[in-house]
Every structure is written in structure tokens, then in C-alpha cells.
Amino acid sequence: MAKTYLDFLKKYEDSLTKGGMTKNGPIITVSGVSGSGKSESVGIILDMLNGFRRVYAGGVFRRLAEEKGLSVEEFSNTRPEDVDYELDRWMLKESIPGNVVLDARLAAWVAGDWADVRILVRCPLDIRAKRVASREGLSEPDARNRLERRDSQDNKRYRDLYGVDVEDEKVYTHVIDNDGTIQELREELSDAISSFRGS
């Protein structure tokens, strides 16, 4: 029985498991929109869990954009559908063996019930805009506009490609509001993964 939540991946998942791929350790997914603190959260979790590796779809996406001589935003707007499908197949294959933190907007949907913990990191738009403005040298209004445009485009793309609402929080086992201190974020993440840390 399929465990992924994305219908198009079910046949691929079946071929992986029939080919002998098995789960040998925990799988954690971390999702969140740009500026939410998703990648920072992944770093904190990796510090807490020895022997876990990061599977980062964004890194592959950036490399593909660079190969085409495009910015991430330009590539995001023009990429063909097969790029998304290939990335999702790659994420599923990399995650199933376990001892992994899957870092992607669709991570929870890709891993589905393979994942032991599915975390969503949330953050208000105003705070996200400040973070992105600082990180990318933009004004806060420009950062806010860019974030709103990207969120809208991503939501539409995933709805059109997969028929899923990526704003549906029911797929997550833990929803963390990252609008406080680093220590508060660390404590919430520690609680979320406590079953793997023996605490």
C-alpha cells in the first residue's frame, strides 16, 4: 500500500520497494515558505541528531537554475513540469532508507506515511519580509511583494500539478510558529523529534 501522498509517485514508490529498498531509520520532513526559518530549523535538527543527513531539494533546484543561466525566481517561473516530477522522485528515493531530514516545501507530501515526523515551520509575512530583505539586500516592501508573488505562484503550481493544497496543515504532525527566539524554536523542534532522541 502506497505511503506517499502524491498520486503520481505511487507507481515509482512501488518500483523502489519491489526493488528491495527498505526503511532503516527515522524520516523527518521540514516544510515552510521562504523566510519562515525552514532551513534554519533543518540545521538545528541535524545538530541534535547524529548520523542524519539532509536531503535538500532547493540545492538541486538552484543548481539547475544556474546551469540554465537563470535566477531561482526566473527558473521557478519558466521550468517545465518534468523538473518538479524528477525532483520529487529524487526526494522520495533519497528519503526512504531513513536517518534523513527531508527539506522541501512538498517534503511532507512526498514522504507521506514514510515520515515519522512531518514539521511545518510557519512565520508571519512581515517577519519573513524582514528576514528576506536583510538576506537579499532588498527593501522590506520589495521583499514582501516578492514573497507574496512566490507564495501565490507556488500554491497554484502545486495545485495544478498534483491537485493538492499546500496550505493544508493536516498533513503535518507538528506545526511550529517561528516568530520568537532561536531558543524557543530549538525547544519546539526538540519536542517534535523527542522520540528519536530518547528523551
List keywords for this structure.
5 strands; 10 helices; Rossmann fold; alpha/beta; 199 residues
**Whole-number count of domains:** 1
Strand content: 5-15%
Q: Give the overall shape.
A: globular
Point out poorly predicted stretches. Answer: none
Main sheet: which strands, in order across? 2-3-1-4-5
Helical/strand content category = alpha/beta
Note the main sheet.
5 strands, parallel
Mean pLDDT: 92
CATH superfamily: P-loop containing nucleotide triphosphate hydrolases
The count of strands amounts to 5
Gap from first CA to last CA:
32 Å
**Secondary-structure element order, as H and E?**
HEHEHHHEHEHHEHH
**Name given to the CATH architecture:** 3-Layer(aba) Sandwich
Helicity range of the residues? 40-55%
User: CATH class, please?
Assistant: Alpha Beta
Number of helices: 10
Describe this structure in words.
With 199 residues, the protein is of the alpha/beta class. The protein has a single domain (7-186), classed as 3-Layer(aba) Sandwich (Rossmann fold). 54% of the residues lie in helices and 12% in strands. A five-stranded parallel β-sheet has the order 2-3-1-4-5, with helices on both faces. Helix 7 (125-136) crosses helix 8 (140-162).
Topology:
Blueprint: H1 10-18, E1 27-31, H2 38-48, E2 53-56, H3 57-67, H4 72-78, H5 81-95, E3 100-103, H6 107-111, E4 117-122, H7 125-136, H8 140-162, E5 174-177, H9 182-192, H10 194-197
Parallel strand pairs: 1-3, 1-4, 2-3, 4-5
Please provide a brief summary of the model:
The chain is 54% helix and 12% strand.
